[in-house]
Amino acid sequence: MRLTDLLHPHLDGVTTVVDATDGGLDLEPYLHLPGEVALHHGERDIGESELVLVSYGPDPALHGTETDCLAVLRRMRPGGRGVILFGHRGPDIPYHRLLDALVAHRCQVLRAAPLDYTHLHAGAVFVRTDVLLPLHDWFGRPVPAEGFATALRIADEYVLADLVSRSLRARVLDLERDAEEAERARGPVHEDGLAERLAAAVREKEQLAAALHGARQRVGLLQARVAMLEGSTSLRVGRALVSAARSPRREAPRLPRELYGLWRRRMKSRSTATTSRAVAQAGVRRAVPDGRMHLAHRAFAATPRDRLVIAGVLTDATAADLAADAVVNRVLPHDGRLVVQRTDPDALLVQLSACTGHGPWSLTGTGLAPDLDRRLAELLTETRAAGRPCVLWRDAPASAAPGLTRLDWDAVLDADAGVRLASLDPAAAGRRRLREVFRADSTRVRLSQLARRIGGPDPLDQRRVCVLAAPRDRADVARLAAQVLSQRHRPAEVVVPDPTGLDELTAAGVTVRTGEPLAPWVADWTDLTEDRPDTLLLDLMCAQEYSCADAVGSTPAADDYTFVPELRPLLVRRSLLASGTPPETWARQGHRLFAWCGKEPT
User: Fold this and answer.
1) Beta bridge partners of 128
2) Which residue among 113, 264, 487, 551 is least crowded, i.e. fewest CB within 10 A of its CB?
3) Residue 65 lies in a domain
4) Is residue 100 part of a domain?
5) Residues 383, 389, 395, CA angle at the centre, nearest 5°?
């Protein structure tokens, strides 16, 4: 909620707003007061037709102190109103320190609500009164109750809310106690021992790998020598003579013919060797298969990665869905260790349903395929030795593969595989279903949950939107702030020629600056007189993620959810906008244009 949403319903009959905040806050850009309401600063008595603003928070230099709030309460006169802004977060608001003073100065709290700012987290509206006033609901409308009925409502809600809060506080205390006990159980000794065992395992693995490499080299050398000896003419002549000596009657008559054949083959090999040397000198080399696997890693770059790189035990469908937003290298039982070594993934992801369905890892963790269990354990050891985390994606009941739970995982992701928006039918699913999947159930959201656990690049960064605007006066500034902060898919940044007066956007976590856009997507809101619904950016991003288009917009024919050759762009990829090419040539240059009409299908 914005400060205007909390404040404006209580401005009826108010002609003066007094800013009594003594900290470093400048609340004027947040208020957007009507023209008939004046704003004053300083200390003064607050009477009828006046409203005072005061703040209280953990940072005295920014929010002010408890003493400032108490001083304002002492200056309240009958009919005066006020708003207390809290810099504390919801569970930490010290309302009990102000409660006695509110009662002593006959101030009734009419409404309290959270605020969506980085340094102001809640606000409460109060009034100085000698009679009990009706309370206000979430929208700021008075609840139809007076006198004794209002008192009963307050008493009943207090008792019931206290009952609920006591159970929540008890639950929090139990969880904190369990966490402390678990931490003590681990202890520094356990951690040191685990680190030593891990280091010993890594050293043993390196020693075994070096020994195996040396053994393979020696075997290769011996095989080459044996092949050379078996192909030598001397050995073949000796074999022919030994055969003739053992069976003179049968082998001796064929001896001259065999020796002549050996001579012919030797001469032919010499000729072939001469030709090969000539070809090699000409720069043409012949490839000799060496039996090794060569892997192509699509994510190699000299710059930091902007996409997740996953080595995974995955189903076919999940691998295809994840490949739209990440580099996916599927591992098989025979090449898993090599894939981890060569691709350097951000994490090894093991999907439980891939171990219980059909595929190369079928029956893993069930106890029916010990060899696969052993290979998976070796794969986890190899991944962890490379310094990468191992994650179990538990998208099926753990009882389906109980052996997986006994392995050592760095993280466990309990969720289904998610839904790709491209797999939905917009006509059948409806706009509301697309929004729900986009925000909570899409494959990209699942990848974001994985990225937060492993510290990799977040795929949701590709949903960031920049709004281009050019407000000309205070009315445009207020309209821009209202449109931006009302969006259900809030922009990441707003680029304007002059950021003056947009402090409220900054306080709400939206970057305001000048220059070129940095977000992947850009929306042009230069015309601030246009009405924009709160679902505008959300629906545009749903359409983009559904179509993977480079630009989403509207057409004169009101086409909806279809590719078109030309449109009026509403959301454009930053790289396409920066190219400077006119929109009417985008389709001819191979860019994908997707139409969105903005109306719900009937």
Assistant:
1) 107
2) 264
3) yes
4) yes
5) 105
Antiparallel, parallel or unpaired: β 50-56 and 38-41: unpaired
**Among 348, 520, 361, residue whose Cα is nearest residue 450:** 348
Arithmetic mean of pLDDT, 50-74: 91
% of the chain residues with pLDDT over 90: 54
Query: Which residues are bridge partners to 330 per DSSP?
Result: 312
If pLDDT is split at 50, 70 and 90, which confidence band does 522 have? Answer: very high
The answer to whether residues 401 and 365 touch, using CB atoms and an 8 Å cutoff, is: yes
End-to-end alpha carbon distance in the chain: 32
The residue segments making up the domain with residue 428 are 308-433
**Do the beta carbons of residue 468 and residue 491 sit within 8 Å?**
no
In a domain, 93, yes or no: yes
Handedness of CA 48, 51, 52, 57 (dihedral sign): positive
Boundary-marking domain end, from 80, 100, 130 = 130
Tokens representing 221? 């050398």
Which tens digits make up the pLDDT trace of 182-235?
777 655 544 555 666 777 777 777 777 777 877 777 787 777 777 776 666 666
Q: What is the pTM of this model?
A: 0.74
Strands 308-313 and 347-351: parallel
Q: What is the pLDDT of residue 269?
A: 57
**How many domains are there within the chain?**
3
pLDDT band of 290, cuts 50, 70, 90: very low
- CATH code at position 565: 3.90.550.10
Q: Do strands 390-393 and 38-41 pair parallel, antiparallel, or not at all (unpaired)?
A: unpaired
Of residues 264 and 551, more confidently modeled: 551
Q: Which run of H or E residues covers position 113?
A: strand 107-114
Mean pLDDT of the chain: 85
Q: What does the DSSP assignment read for 474-491?
A: HHHHHHHHHHHHH-SS--
Q: Are 555 and 566 contacting, i.e. CB atoms less than 8 angstroms apart?
A: yes
